[in-house]
Amino acid sequence: MIPLIDLHRADCAADIGRACATSGFFAITNHGLDQSVLRRSWDDAHRFFDLPDSDKTAVAMPRPGYPYGWSPLTGETLARSLGTAAPPDRKESFAIGPVSAPTHDIVDPDESFAWSPNL
Known about the structure:
The chain is α+β, with helices and mostly antiparallel strands. 29% of the residues lie in helices and 10% in strands. The model has no long low-confidence stretch (mean pLDDT 87).
């Protein structure tokens, strides 16, 4: 079961930490987002993923390991990050990231991927 976390609760940070440490997933309630914004976002995502792959390649991740852009079905294998052989993921995704430059010097290689240039 995916935990449902109420963002109005004072201890919601602890709830999020528990959810991430156990199932790795959670859903939120009382987030303050207008339902029309959520509906538009959902509809826009469906319109994008319903496009033919040939159209989506215009915004594809330009190289393996790049964090932003479209990744096709079977384009990634998350389990390989654990150093194990695994079949490709049966998902396609579109990842976005920060538009602004980092506010500090990036010295940790594990952090640097999050500040790749935007497409």
